[in-house]
Amino acid sequence: MADSRISKQQAKAELKKLREQQKTEKKQRKASRKAKKASGEGFFSRIKQVFNMTRTYDPNIAWWMLLAAVITFAVSFVVTQFLFHWIVSLIVSLPFALLAAMIIMNRRAEKAAFSRIEGRPGAAAAALNTLRRGWVVTEEPIQMDPKTQDAVFRAIGKPGVVLVTEGPPARAKKLASKAQKRLRPVLRDEVPVHIVQSGRGHDQVPLSKLTKHIKKLDKSLNKHEVHEVERRLSTLPIGKPPIPKGVDPWRARPDRKALRG
């Protein structure tokens, strides 16, 4: 009898501890949610931040979002009315309208993010880092002029090896030619090497259109060949650029949360 009483008391004590632990965890979750809201890390806070950031570079963003939402709502409502009741069409059309507005905001936010870093050292590397799976990008330049800070960055994908330059066209072309000569002894002849100049000059690609331009290049390699090329090129030494005092210029990156909305 005494043993059974002790076991019941122990069970009650364990149950009490478990309840206290659950209460503590619940309080911690509430506190973390409040801290996120206070620091502006919530979902709606991020959307507000993205919208405000985009509006500073694109004052008409609200009108573009409204226009996209109205057109999408009207088309969706008319189409779904042939299949459902008008109330159902209304419920279905509203999310599509909100989605259209968010897509417009994301695209405008991406352009705004690139406009903030355009012209700064390392801006091309920041744009290349937005390439999705299937690409291997070097964050550090593979070739650089320390005096002018002209640089060449490398990306490897199915189109082959892509060398992206930063700087005036004439100087950047010479720098890219040097980088290409360094790569050729390691690569096979059938691996194409593309040179893309980023910038606003003649025959240059604007930063906001850089990834789209690279993706349109003809595909020459498969997935396994991409890894093989990356393995070969990884044996080449990459000289680190001299870092100026103060802010690291190679840390210039667009806000990915902002790009995703």
Automatic annotation (TrEMBL):
Keywords, sorted A to Z: Membrane, Transmembrane, Transmembrane helix
Membrane-spanning parts: 61-80, 86-106
Skewed-composition ranges (Basic and acidic residues): 11-25, 248-261
Ranges of Basic residues composition bias in the record: 26-37
InterPro entries associated with the record: DUF4191
Region (Disordered): 1-37, 236-261
Name of the molecule in the record: DUF4191 domain-containing protein
Record lineage: Bacteria, Bacillati, Actinomycetota, Actinomycetes, Micrococcales
